[in-house]
Amino acid sequence: MATDYDAPRKTEEEAGEEPVAALRTRRHDPQSAVVDEDEAEAADGYELPGAELSTEEVLVRILPAQADEFTCASCFLVRHRSQIALEKDGMLYCVDCRG
Known about the structure:
The protein is built from three helices and four strands; from the N terminus they run αααββββ.
């Protein structure tokens, strides 16, 4: 359907005014209880927090910390040495955890 962009448009006041009879009939319309099948299929793919994952197998290759890396004493993330913010009591802290 083509839209005529040159046609006069309703003002905000006119757009807000709707016949009372139309509002009353719309109020009593039954709402659809049908669920969109695409949404239901999409919901099946989500894992909820606390879900049972003992049957899942994860294959991850774990590498030891490299010579140019350190483990932050606060967040325990392995970071590059350029991210060292401070050293306190022999412990290294990253720039995100300096405090």
